[in-house]
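Hi Y.,

Following your request, here is the sequence exactly as I used it, all 293 residues.
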Amino acid sequence: MTPAIAVTGASGRIGGAVARRLAGAGVSQLLLGRDPARLPALPGAVKAPPASYADAEAMRAAVDGAGTLFLVSAHENPDRVRGHKTAVDAALAAGVERIVYVSFLGASPDATFTFARDHWHTEQYIRSTGVRHTFLRDGFYQAAFPAMAGEDGVIRGPAGDGHVSAVAHDDVADAAAAVLLAELEDHDGHDGATYDLTGPAALSLAEIARELSRATGRTVTYVPETREEAYASRERFRAEPWQVEGWISSYEAMANGELAEVSDAVPRLTGRPATAFADFLRENPDSHRHLAG
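Below is the corresponding structure, written out as tokens. Let me know if you'd prefer a different format.
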């Protein structure tokens, strides 16, 4: 029997979508999550015992028997890199031989977007272990932009006239499934590869607002902010300083051109074009229904 693929975050949007694609291909899986009750019931899939990345013993038990680990990055938190390292160590101790990690576009130690730095440090750690690996550097998710508009239909942030090559969740899931399934078909050409997963074009926030206007029938606009204005407008959320810095630096990364790269990795891996933002909005009306008013 082919060693199972352990899929983390299998109750989430990316992990769950990948798990469904692997099930459709008849692949045996271990589905991981903190709450097994939320994991999907899929043919050929076994729900692993509950585990969080920071719990080494639980992670080792959860991935036992898996040959490959599909590692979806943890939600942003100050100890995210430490949790990733613990999860990687636990997986290797359990006998995992390959890790496919969901990273972020432009990951680097000095990325403007502070959360992207976590991904670089995680990538470096995975490399240092010598385990076979593939990194999927996703761009911003297209689904995030409708949520960026406030109740007044305005997107605010210090992005200037910068551009972003946002990607659809389904495109990421299809690309990830292609990478995971390739080895089962005796292809190992993805070992050591890093793929930038983006949409087919880089759009400014003004262009994104116009697409949202077309989709919702309501005027959505983009208002550039200074860094100081951005901090002031987010005070009402009473979020932790590291979280607010992450939010604001994401816009600044757009302004700096760090999120504008357009890659052909999605069509190369999936055999179809990457989803345009306008198409995403048309195919996912629930993503912007709150803006229609």
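The radius of gyration is 19 Å.

Thanks again,
Q.
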